[in-house]
Design goal:
By secondary structure, the chain is mainly α. It contains 16 helices and no strands.
């Protein structure tokens, strides 16, 4: 699957035209670890993924604790942080974070960026946003959250613009750097978009994509189980974010919503359960709900873990 493409890039660079859809940071780091630690490329990539996932869980827990304390003033924000982190850890597709994928690296960078935005360190947040946009296409959406957080910090008063706006502008460097590389080599700065057609993806709107899944189901047409799964997870997370819009900071809500809408704007919901891992705000909202309704924890976590085992076995096979 995607791991094979990342491995090809780490070993030989962008020789396959379809590989330009896979952003360079993860395979580049795998190559660096391979060179300096003299490990094979597969071990190097798996080492990065698993270390990044552990670090992500730690940072996510601490960030959620601070966000809940600041946003709602609850007496025991750690309970919410525990519930959010465990829910994400047991989520049916979280095993991808330990595979030869860029998932865990991306999650770590995004969470660190929001931790910096929480501290109003816009320069470091923008640098991390640049790294995120060199990891996955979705990382470019973090640019929106960085600028939103900056303007929110000055209460959207343009007379208060300061040097921190320049700091926030650093967020565009990552995706711009990749676009320049593609222009220099292929004369196509957006090849990461145009190559999506190889994977049966095309630019559309999320409403049309979701409707194309709902209509056959409502009219009794046969659809494979994966389509039901992709649609169900998508609608569930959209509902969670819409109902919980006031429970998390706006910048995190915007990114979490875009983490759903952007992949859904490709004409297909394929892989959506994996992409939903980046919808971090939804997990924070779920954590708050489970803290308020603790009797649901065992049921939801058990069902989620059983699904994860089932999906992981199928993936490995």
């Amino acid at each position: 699957w995607d791991g094979g493409h990342y491995l090809d890039i780490a070993a030989s660079g962008y020789l396959d035209i379809g590989n330009y859809a896979f952003f360079p940071l993860f395979p580049t780091l795998a190559g660096i670890v391979h060179h300096f630690l003299t490990l094979d490329l597969i071990t190097s990539g798996l080492l990065i993924s698993n270390i990044a996932f552990v670090l992500f869980l730690i940072v996510f827990f601490k960030l959620t604790t601070r966000l809940i304390l600041a946003n709602s003033g609850k007496d025991q924000p750690q309970e919410v942080a525990y519930a959010s982190t465990i829910t994400l850890l047991l989520f049916p597709t979280s095993f991808f974070a330990t595979a030869y994928y860029s998932e865990s690296l991306f999650l770590l960078i995004v969470t660190l960026a929001f931790a910096c935005l929480w501290r109003k360190n816009f320069l470091l947040a923008a640098l991390l946003a640049s790294l995120a946009s060199l990891t996955r296409l979705m990382g470019a959406m973090l640019i929106i959250s960085v600028f939103y957080s900056y303007f929110a910090s000055i209460k959207f008063n343009l007379t208060k613009l300061n040097i921190k706006l320049i700091h926030a502008s650093v967020a565009v460097f990552g995706v711009s750097l990749y676009a320049i590389y593609l222009f220099a080599n292929l004369n196509d700065p957006v090849r990461f978009l145009t190559s999506q057609s190889i994977w049966q993806r095309s630019v559309t709107d999320p409403v049309s994509t979701i409707t194309s899944y709902i209509w056959p189901i409502t009219t009794g047409q046969w659809r494979p189980f994966n389509d039901w799964l992709d649609l169900g997870f998508t609608l569930l997370f959209l509902t969670i974010l819409i109902l919980g819009i006031k429970k998390i900071p706006s910048s995190l809500w915007i990114f979490s919503m875009l983490a759903i809408l952007i992949p859904a704007s490709s004409g297909t919901l394929t892989s959506m359960p994996r992409y939903l891992l980046a919808s971090l705000g939804a997990f924070v909202i779920i954590g708050q709900y489970l803290t308020e309704k603790p009797k649901l924890k065992i049921f939801i976590w058990t069902a989620s873990l059983l699904l994860q085992i089932f999906f992981a076995v199928r993936f490995i096979n």
